[in-house]
UniProtKB/TrEMBL annotation:
Provenance organism: Chitinophaga oryziterrae
InterPro entries: Homeodomain-like_sf, HTH_AraC, Tscrpt_reg_AraC-type_HTH
SUPFAM superfamilies: Homeodomain-like
Domain of life from the UniProt record: Bacteria
Protein name per the record: Helix-turn-helix domain-containing protein
Keywords: DNA-binding, Transcription, Transcription regulation
GO-annotated molecular function: DNA-binding transcription factor activity; sequence-specific DNA binding
Domain HTH araC/xylS-type positions: 226-307
Amino acid sequence: MFSFDEFDKRFATGSSLELKALLPVGIQDEIGHFNVFNMSKIRQTVSNTPSEPYQCRTFYKVSLLLGHSKIGYPDSIIDLSQPTLVFTTPKSPVTWLPLERQSGMCCVFTSEFLHPTRSGVILDELPIYKSPEHPVFPLQKSDVKNVKDIFEKMQTAIASTYAYKYDLLRAYTLELIHLGQQLQSITMLHPNHSNFARTTSLFIELLERQFPVENPRQRINLRAPKDYAEKLSIHVNHLNKILKETTSLTTSALIAGRILKEAQILLRQTNWTIAEIADSLGFSDVAHFAKFFKNETSISPGVYRSQPKSLNYT
């Protein structure tokens, strides 16, 4: 058995990477670029000696730390007194000091493992690695279970004989990265966007997530500007000001435009009754829906449905 620091140092030597020359083409690019470990199975000691640096300069690392420890950065020391998800990179000037016997799990991987041609991402361009905030995230109980499950899936996959297990391991690694990015502040996730642009994108996402309407029993829930403002935790007047500046349209106009688009699709592409369409789109009755539709298009829903599809009234 060896200590956690010795474990890091063994990876720093790169000796495992040299062995890949003995492997067939294709497998060479996988083996030696990823591994996953259960910390409780690695002998660890606790002492009052100075903390040791992470020596693993070839690898990126994602760790779930469950015991009490400290992470040191050049500008701060973070006390980890609850379950924590930690991201480190080959460039991370980090020291780690366990204050009690550690448990948890970790995975290590190279930039080649998540190369854009394999993963579709540019690793160092991800917010988790570009953020000026230290990527150290205390976890809620539900998050701990989720992270443990991902690591356990990694262990099952890497021990399997499944031919595409490294593709599966990439997916699990990206799942951990995205979980970390969800725990980042919204400012860090959108560093190049203004507050107005972020709010606008969140509004549009809320609006679009209600569509498409796929059956008459489905009903959209967010109909009024105040509904969106409440979801975004801002005043409705402020939301309207933001959207007016970024889109030149009011909140009501944007909502109405998207509902009209869905109404036209349903009138042309389904055999639902107009009453069913009205109900699905959140109208109290057919009369209110007909009035809305005619105000927007100058014709009634029934006339629109009966006209040739080549005609466009919007």
